[in-house]
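Blinded run. Sample ID left blank on purpose so nobody reads anything into the name before looking at the predicted structure. Input follows.
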Amino acid sequence: MSYGLGALVFAIAVCARGLYYAGRELRRYLKSPTRRERAEARRRLGQGVDALREGERVAITGTVHAIDAHISAALSGKPCVCYLALADIYWRNELGAFEHDREVRESAMTSFVLDTKHGRIVIDGDHATVELPAAPVIPRRIELERAFLGRHLTGPGTRIGRDLREIAIEEGDRISVAGVVAVTRDDSAEHGYRDAPMKMRLVADEKFPLTIGKPR
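Blinded prediction complete.
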């Protein structure tokens, strides 16, 4: 292949790659709520969580309260409603030195209530994206660390786990949660179906996961 033809092929490949990423960002933008829609959702939230509409994407800050049983965090064993545990995995190369392989992440969640200044809302799901900093567990729970690494030390050769860390969302924590509004009737109430109060929930959908972050 001549130099000129090779340069042309390379330029076409670069342009195609650029068009692919530009198209992906455009599709993401078109699917995301508009500024006006976000402003409308915030305005309704100011009137109370009961004013929110089905399908709106909102972020709301409040205090965590468990609904039923807690779950146990993977590394600390703390009772919580959500946790994220992380570790860096290393493998021994042919020279006997350890090289970084990957970071492993394990998370779990149970539904809980967020008590906010706008009212109470149920955070409903079994998984959330946690955007809070994780830290080493002190004192260490060696038996829990071994169980955690046993679930994630996979692959050929010798592997070890280092820099284990965790964030657990506990009763009484103040957090922000972003999600999609889902409105259902509360069947547990002692009313007829038509008279039953509405139950407000934040859930995930195929485009927007539940996301937990710092209070706003």
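Unblinding after everyone has recorded impressions. Residues 41 and 79 are 33 Å apart (CA to CA).
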